[in-house]
C-alpha cells in the first residue's frame, strides 16, 4: 500500500509554486518596463537593507547659524557675573516665559503691523540693586494679600453722613478739667444721694413693721422686700460716705495748695508734694472729719474696724497646714458625743 504525503509537505509545495510564479511575473514586467516604483518597493519590502553612515559635522553645518567669537562670550560672562542675583533670577524667569510664549506664537499667524516691527525692544528685567526694592512698612505686615479673605461686593454709591456720637464734656473747646469747678457744677448730686438715703431708711422702717404683722401667705414677699431695701440702703450709705470722703480730701488738698502758694509768694521756691506725703495728709484729714462728727470714740472705732479688715485679709492669704481642717473636725467630734451623752443622762433622770 503506497504512503500518502503529509499535509505540511503539500502546503510547502504550494507555497514554492506560488512564489516561483510571482517571481517569474515580476521578471517579465521588469523586462517589459511596466513595473512602477511602488510595486517595486512592495516587492522589495522583505529584501535586506543597507545603513548609510553620515558625519555629524555635516548634519550640524547650517548656513543660517553664525559663529560667535570667544572674546564676546568672555565679556558676556563678566557682565552676567557683575549683575545681582535678584536680577539674574528675574531674567531667568522672563526667559522661561518667553519660551512658552514663542511656542504659542508659532501656532498662531504672525502679525504684519509696521508699529510692532519698528518699535524698539523693551528691557524685560531691571538692573537695579536689591536695596532699591521697596520694603514693607511693618515687619509684621504680610508680603502678599491673602486670597482666602473674601472681597466685599458692596460699593459706596452715595456717601451717607451717619451721626457720630460725641460727648460735649470732652470737647477741646470746654478747656482743661478742673476738679473744683466740677464739684461746684455737680453739687446737687450729693444732695440727691442724701435724700435718697433718708427715703430708703423710712421705707425700710415701714417694711419691717409690715413684716411683723403680715399674714403667712404674704410673709415671703415682705421678707424679700426687706432684703432688697437693706441692700439698697447699704449701697446708698456707701455712696454718701464716698461723697463726704471725697469732699474732705479735696478740701485738704486745696488748703495745702493755698498754704504752699502763700509760702512761694513770701520767697520760698517751688515744692511738689510726694505721694507718701499726700497719702498721710489725706488720712489725717479723714480722721479729723470723723472726730468732728463722733469724737475720739468714732476715730478709735474706725481704726479698730480697719485693723480687723487688714487682719482678715492676711488670714485669708495665709497658707493652711496639711490636715489642719481634718484635725479640727476630729477634735470637735468628742465634744459633740459628750454633749449627747449629757442630754441622755438628763432625760433618764427626768424619767
Helix count equals: 11
Rg is: 57 Å
Shape: elongated
Q: What percent of residues are in strands?
A: under 5%
> Strand tally, please?
0
Please give a structural write-up.
The structure is a single chain. With about 350 residues, the chain is mainly alpha-helical. Among the domains are: about 180-270; about 275-315. About 65% of the residues lie in helices and about 0% in strands. The chain is built from eleven helices and no strands. Helix 8 runs antiparallel to helix 9 (about 220-265) and helix 9 (about 220-265) runs antiparallel to helix 10. The radius of gyration is 57 Å and the shape is elongated. The N and C termini lie far apart (about 150 Å). The relative contact order is 0.02. Component of the 90S pre-ribosome involved in the maturation of rRNAs. Required for early cleavages of the pre-RNAs in the 40S ribosomal subunit maturation pathway. It is found in: Nucleus, Nucleolus. This is rRNA biogenesis protein RRP36. Keywords: Coiled coil, Nucleus, Ribonucleoprotein, Ribosome biogenesis, rRNA processing. Associates with 90S and pre-40S pre-ribosomal particles.
